[in-house]
Amino acid sequence: MKPFPIVDVQSFIETTRDTGYKSTGSAIAELVDNALEASAKHVNVTIEHADGIGATKNSTIRVTDDGTGMTPAVLRVALQFGGTTRLGSRVATGRYGMGLPNGGLSQARRLEVYTWTNSSRVWTSYLDVDEIATNSMCAVPTPRIARVSVRPRTRSGTIVVLSKCDRLDCDSAQTLQLKILAEFGRIFRQALHDGRLIKINGIQVRPFDPLFLAADGNLSGAKLYGPPLEYKLRVPAFVKSGASVSLVSVRFSELPIQKWHHFSNEKKNDLGIAKNAGVSIVRAGREIDYGWYFMGTKRKENYDDWWRCEVAFTPELDELFGVTHSKQKINPTQLLSSILTPEIERTARELNSRVRSKFTSIKGQGVRGRALNRLQARDHLLEPPRSLRESSTLSDKLPGLKLLRKRNDGVHGLRFAVTHNPEENNLFFSAQLRDGLLSLNINESHPFYSCAYRQLASAGTVGNRQDGLHYVLLLLISCARAECLVNGPRVREIMRRFRQIWSDAVAAFLS
After folding, report:
1. 199 φ, ψ to 5°?
2. Residue 18 CB neighbour total at 10 angstroms
3. Of the candidates 151, 145, 175, the residue with the CA atom closest to the CA atom of residue 72
4. For a surface tag, which of 66, 183, 217, 244 has the fewest beta carbons within 10 Å of its beta carbon?
5. Stretch 104-129: mean pLDDT
6. Domain membership of residue 497 as a residue range
7. How far apart are CA 182 and CA 212, in angstroms?
């Protein structure tokens, strides 16, 4: 009877090409993983154009490294689907034995490997989809010594060549290059931080930290939000590991809204700020996924662009995270989600609330600033406080007063500032005059702030609400301004007592 193989090789090869890598960069990242696991310090990826004009059709991609290289026996195993010397390994990124053949043939119809453990002899073998389809290739070819034209430049290393590329995800080679530079900066950020060098067509890959914490990467300036969360999880019994417990680490960062909110939308997109809300999933120091994970019922909003989360774990917990063999996606188990989600969701909502509050403050500052400028321009019409009338040299010492006197034909005017901070007393506002600056603080602990002022301040430039904030500030500042003209401690105490009674009445009416 004719043997009936377990695997139909021709169908299998075509099917496995549809593994579903997110991008060409994700597929080539598998080859870079192999290089880094082989202790490579330098990895060079080159995209060569068959027609010489920059299109990706029929391009050739080369991945060259200075790692330890492979012996002929190891090379043949490495080209076999499921063949690996690291099967079941839980100490680094490799484990499944699918990276080299699967990643390579997902993008190209031919995969060639040149490798050497010393520069005197280079071994080569290959896989070819078309030869497999016509039954002319039924097994991994026995490695042979490569022709003399392949001259190693390092003591040991490997070159992987993908030719007859028919599934690259960009029509333009330049676009593909830029896309891979961005992807690799994020995927391999930890290796790059540790001194590994990766180049794409001679351009050095720069680490990209989505949490914006690393000083040597992209734009930095975020701050850690609270201490990292750590979860000790039991390693499944069937996993061959020296440890019975492994650690999952979760950390959050808060982006500096005050410094970056004014960036244009284009700049926010280019810097990776906008449309990047989510959780970076890092396995063995290498990012394998990025998405809206462990958020429970919380929906993603634009405010969530301004904080980030990273969940890091070791390969011993692959089954709990549902890691796929392409190492580019997770499918967390219900058990893992039940452990991580409550605290991550709570912190996410907390950070979202903080971002909202900060943007509310920023919007209020813009409207408030315009309102204060309008009031400040008219203050010279009022009687100046005695402290200013009695100081003939004060305007010479204070540039702000000097400017106002010059603008208003020599008549002084006060400058105004408004803040909102919690106070222990129940006054809904307080004021202080110093060096020509009248500072008004609205008490965040008083009901007036939450019931009225905050809504007006957060309305930005929306029609009548903007006018409402202007008139509220006019009333409060004019009240504080009038008190500046009151002299004598007894009268001032009466005014303070009046403000206290007034504040209590406002609180009662708003409650």
Report:
1. -125, 145
2. 9
3. 145
4. 244
5. 93
6. 359-510
7. 15
